Amino acid sequence: MADHQYDLVVIGSGPAGEAAAMSAAKKGLRAAVIEKRNVVGGNCTHKGTIPSKALRHAVKQLMRYNTQHLFRALGEPRRLTFPQVMSEVNRVIPRQVEMHTSFYARNRVDLHIGEARFVEAGKLEVHLLDGAVETISAEKVVIATGSRPYRPEDVDFSHPRVYDSDTILDMQHTPKNLIIYGAGVIGCEYASIFAGLGVKVDLINSRGSLLEFLDDEISDALSYHLRDIGVNVRHREEYAKVIPDGRGVTIEMKSGKRIHGDALLWCNGRTGNTQYLGLEEIGLEANHRGQLSVDEHYMSAVEGVYAVGDVIGWPSLASASYDQGRAVANAVIGKGHRIIKDAPTGIYTLPEISSVGKTESELTAAKVPYEVGRAFFKHTARAQISGEKVGMLKILFHIDTLEILGIHCFGAEAAEIVHIGQAVMNQPAPNNSIEFFVNTTFNYPTMAEAYRSAALEGLNRVTRL
Ligand SMILES: Cc1cc2nc3c(=O)[nH]c(=O)nc-3n(C[C@H](O)[C@H](O)[C@H](O)COP(=O)(O)OP(=O)(O)OC[C@H]3O[C@@H](n4cnc5c(N)ncnc54)[C@H](O)[C@@H]3O)c2cc1C
Ligand SMILES: NC(=O)c1ccc[n+]([C@@H]2O[C@H](COP(=O)([O-])OP(=O)(O)OC[C@H]3O[C@@H](n4cnc5c(N)ncnc54)[C@H](O)[C@@H]3O)[C@@H](O)[C@H]2O)c1
């Protein structure tokens, strides 16, 4: 007999786990969450999305102060140290924790603090922080254990100058120069943050361009603007050796180059948290990246054991994890659920990037007859007023049906602006039409004006055909 019994137990209190447990409880299931950190919120709140976005917000405010004419009346441009901006971030995290904690009591979801391990498919051991062990049985178990930074064995992460995206948050100084190895989403976001603080950044990319999944024009714009704020972007480079010493870190590249920095931030992908779950006890195996495969009901290869969030790999986003969590709760009770097949991209670099739908390269490869409408933020009244003139919105649409096929945007508030286009694009035909933007009156001055300008520009090209 187990110490506790539930209909559904979730392992992990990040976005995926929280959404699964709260949705299940709202549907009448007796639900619990097991979390090994002594507070809820997951890596999302403590190491990933929230701290990185709060850091970026603080740095962006500093950049505005230092670059806008208005503030010169208050004084000369100023610098803040990394620990100073981190102290602001450390005010945001407890607010998030407090809010997420309140959901548990409100929805009557029990929280067990400790590390979960399978004993058998419907039975878990919870290793409590004081060393005691409790057992929990549940008809259904949802694995939502998230992910951690991938650490190759030949890099010494115990060295005080070698960081990953978790440990960088504890850095107690501001390096003069920083090497960021890995130019994925995390590498590009942190390159923006550190460059904004006045740190010289070497961003090392193993591929030929930044964030290759983006539309080419947006990827080019990101390279240009990162270089513009002082990031040295190096493409097609791979490390041969990482040599940390008392003065910093030197990376020897396969190309023969040597790059030295005061510190190294390693951002080369993530690994699913499955290693201590006792998966072997239930005959479940993770892939080489620690990730689990699931079917269209988010169920793993073992009956009654489900998985959602980063632990199942793509798209590894907080946004998608919340939706997957809600979906798995519906799947468990046999109600219709949505499989999350696509999510917009929202990348909080400086400038911000966001997109939804197809890129030009994808449409060209598929031989779809499309046209492009563009609007530059510098031509909108709102951007001229705010002074945030860097940016562009681009709408890709079908020449014959005028259906919107993709929205690609960079610049201030791009991650918000994209949703206007997404809402239209997700309408069934004939409502998904670029004409919506010329037949609808928008508030003025707003960044939504960019949709009207881009639509008019695109439609002008089509009517010339
Ligand atoms: C630097 C960074 C920035 C990011 N920025 C964004 C962004 O801007 N937008 C976005 O959408 N996504 C972003 N992400 C991705 C996002 O954070 C993740 O997709 C999201 O956190 C995944 O949620 P999750 O619920 O799957 O797991 P996590 O948030 O990883 O939470 C998993 C939880 O499970 C717990 N756990 C693990 N093993 C056990 C065990 N055996 N027993 C008990 N508990 C356990 C962990 O302690 C953790 O609390 C970012 C990620 C990083 C690293
Ligand atoms: N704003 C956001 O949405 C946001 C922000 C940060 C992180 N994240 C999430 O965190 C995850 C991890 O980000 P990351 O930057 O550590 O990793 P990543 O998966 O984006 O890749 C990081 C680097 O590793 C390289 N790489 C990855 N897989 C490779 C492969 N198979 N072969 C060769 N090179 C490869 C990439 O080229 C890149 O340079 C992302 O999947 C993303 O979803 C999202």
Automatic annotation (TrEMBL):
InterPro entries: Class-I_Pyr_Nuc-Dis_Oxidored (IPR050151), FAD/NAD-bd_sf (IPR036188), FAD/NAD-binding_dom (IPR023753), FAD/NAD-linked_Rdtase_dimer_sf (IPR016156), Pyr_nuc-diS_OxRdtase (IPR001100), Pyr_nucl-diS_OxRdtase_dimer (IPR004099). Residues 6-325 form the FAD/NAD(P)-binding domain. Keywords: Cytoplasm, FAD, Flavoprotein, NAD, NADP, Oxidoreductase. Pfam families: Pyr_redox_2, Pyr_redox_dim. Conversion of NADPH, generated by peripheral catabolic pathways, to NADH, which can enter the respiratory chain for energy generation. PANTHER family: DISULFIDE OXIDOREDUCTASE (PTHR22912), SOLUBLE PYRIDINE NUCLEOTIDE TRANSHYDROGENASE (PTHR22912:SF93). This is Soluble pyridine nucleotide transhydrogenase. It comes from Biformimicrobium ophioploci.
